[in-house]
Amino acid sequence: MSTNNAQPGGDEEISREEAEEIIDEIERRRSLQGLAALAVAVIGICFSLFQLALAARSFTFVIPLPFVEGFQVSLQLLQANAIHVAFALVLTFLMFPASMGDGFVSRNLGRFVDAVEDAFGSDNPVATAFDGLRGAFRWMFLDPDRSRVTPFDVLCMIASGLSAFYFLTEFSEIQDMRFFGLEGGRPITGVYPFLEPILGGVPFVSEYSYAMILGVLGVLLVLEATRRTLGLPLMLIVASFIVYARWGYLISGNTPFLGLLAIPELTWPDIVQNLWYNTENGVFGIPVTVSVSFIYIFILFGSFLEMSGAGQWFIDLAYAVTGHRKGGPAKASILASGFMGTISGSSIANTVTTGAFTIPLMKRSGYSPEFSGAVEASASSGGQILPPVMGAAAFLMVQYTGTPFREIIILSTVPAVVFFFGVWVMVHLKAVQEGIGGIDDADSESLATHLARGWFYLVPIVLLLYYLIGARLSVSRSAWFTLVALVSLITFIAAYSDETRTFLLSSIAVIFGVELATYVVAGVPVSGLVGGNAGAGVPLAEAVAIVGPRIGWYAMLAGAVTMLVYSDVQSKVLDLNPTVQSAAESAGSTAGRDVGDNQLFRVGTFVVKSMEEGARTAVPVVVAVAAAGIIPGVISVSGLGPNLTSLLLALSGGSIVVMLLVTAVASIILGMGMPTTVTYIILISMLATPLVEFGIPELAAHLFILYFGVIADITPPVAVAAYAASGVAKSDPFETGVKAFSLSLNKAIVPFAFVLAPGIVLLREKANAADLPLRDRYRVVNFSDLAELSYSVPEILVPIVGVFLGVIALGATIIGTLYARVDRFGRVAFALSSLLLMAPGMLSTAVFDALALVDVTVSVNALLLDVTLRGVGLVLFVLFTLRNRRKFDAEGGEATGTDGTTRSTQTAAGSEST
């Protein structure tokens, strides 16, 4: 295969609409029009506004109302969580169909009616009745074209709203029921007396409290939303835990192994109260609390960043950095997917949106469709483990471990960089093997030109890191301030031009000066002075300290005024997402006005569309954490936790390697087709404690589970990210999944490396560790630890260098090429060196565990053994690298590909920078 240069553009690229259709089809979302689409937009915007209010003012804030002073809202945590979940449930029932007619019930009902018609004739009254029943069922539940909201959806939305309304209006009763139980609550006729004439004589209504009925309905609604958004398997898993909570007491405690799962008897009111009216466990437990506090605001930040045009700019930046290099399109795909991981919390959305541009370029450069899709899927799945934003599971880790997010960022950085470096190495070696070049210089933009055109997109990322690490603000406050800065920056850039810059800068100065003066004179902002709330003035320095941090809001106001005055202003550098332009034009067409090119209207559309898209993106995540929270809720209320830990420790036979393998396999199997967030919540509830009992640092154990949950997205047979990539690449889905898993194999080895050598994730055992509980024995390293060379060299530097060299050896093993083709014996040697360089502890521990089975105990210095084994791996790596280089030189500087043909010296690994 001769070297090809990728050409941008082309017929193979799929449009934005096609990419969205692929995502909707995979996620089974509706494509709504008209009133239903408007309802989704309005509810989604309200959802985002609610979350923004919480981020800005916590649980007490004022809702501005016309002609009145303002309505103050003060929420309890349970109320905020309930509203959060209610918004997600309503949007779920709008956006996801209950059935498309391809399910078990729908198919068999249709077959049954057809059989009745065949048996009795279509004109028979029985057949007619059953046909009418089928028609009513279809009208009530079915949406085969994903285009209409059914009556069943409306009923579910009403029930979701009633539940949230009860939390808001009857919270005192909910508090009382914490002591008296759900049986102590009032019936529905007691809560709403006007229903007494209608429902007063119904036995069921008077027998159960309204709280009990709403709790049962709420849990069922969460299960139904889970089925629609995340699939039937997860719904059945969650439902099985609820069944276990009720009837797990039937398990005999005398049964071997299974007896450890015996629990005390619980009544339905006990279960419902713990699952629905509790912030410690259940639906509104820790996962939903994290979603309310952290996850949603970061999803919203990503949505604003994407709608601002940053997504395409990051893709173009990746091509500007790497496009001209060997295998440039694939390397650009890796960088672009990493950048997009900051924006998108979904492996599928990241794969399709980035892959719509990168996969066709990879194919045209010479990579096969399957390999092109695999590269994109593999890199896109890594977005959830790449700091600074990472995925939703990282925020759950903050809450479950009590660790500041800045420390999560620090300990996650090295393994994430190792993963992306490993994929980079493999695509480079594949380019060497196939003789694949890059994009012509004439077809790629220089890095300096690209940075000059969109440098401002990097500002929010830098600010986020500053707030999190430098200023040490909380996660939610950091995200809020960064979001405000992003909107201010986009508004300023949109209003800035050669014609408007004087007016714009003057406006900012005037607004800032007037606000400063009112504080100095009256001690209040301009709005307070106008409202007659003037008081004593404050010193100038204090006024500057108050007004200075608000510069973003002033820039936002000045930008809006400037765009209002200069209605025809157009920014030279701002390129908003095409979705924003399309929405602006659509809104203008509906209103009968041509406002699609009005910059102020476009910026307003950008804000509104970002809030809507943020809500759409958040819905599956919120449903996932609500459903998954039921599992730790059941484990907690039933007292299963300690017994489950004992069972797993017994099954592992005391072997840490067996326990790690069980955890890894369970993570992959459970994570197939499910969000990483769900996998993480379920597995840390069941497996984190047993891992810590083996002496593994708690943070490393949580990160281990997270990594294997991410791997599930690209593991056949249910490799959802890989199958999404195959839809763009028009490749074989299963083969794409196999290649994606192969490219991500280092992601499966690195977790074993850092749990057995915590220095890789920058964790160090505390000096008084022996006197501390297992969970508190490790801490994140600091600069003094790094300066202590006797510690940092053998326990941090050597293992980190080892994993980086190990992924190169792994690349040679999988791709089969380094400088020249690697023979079978060489692959075995590189595989062994990779294991010794990356995770020698896994091999040595397995050997010691095997010896322990035959009562042979070996006592060695663990650190010395670790360094020695890595040294052996390094020797193997160097020897076989030199052997491969000599083979390359003996062939006259030609790399032999897998097909037996040769590549010129210019395509060899050492002839061009990677």
From TrEMBL:
Superkingdom of the source species: Archaea
Keywords noted in UniProt: Membrane, Transmembrane, Transmembrane helix
Amino acid composition bias (Low complexity), ranges on this chain: 896-914
The keyword Transmembrane helix is annotated on this UniProt entry: yes
Membrane-crossing segments per the record: 35-56, 76-98, 149-168, 204-223, 230-249, 284-305, 408-427, 454-473, 479-496, 503-531, 551-569, 618-641, 647-670, 677-696, 702-724, 796-820, 832-854, 860-882
Location of the region described as Disordered in the Swiss-Prot/TrEMBL record: 891-914
Domain TRAP C4-dicarboxylate transport system permease DctM subunit stretches: 217-565, 607-763
A matching Pfam family: DctM
Keyword Ligase: no
Classification via NCBIfam families: TRAP_fused (TIGR02123)
Protein name (Swiss-Prot/TrEMBL): TRAP transporter 4TM/12TM fusion protein
Species of provenance: Halorubrum saccharovorum DSM 1137
Lineage: Archaea, Methanobacteriati, Methanobacteriota, Stenosarchaea group, Halobacteria
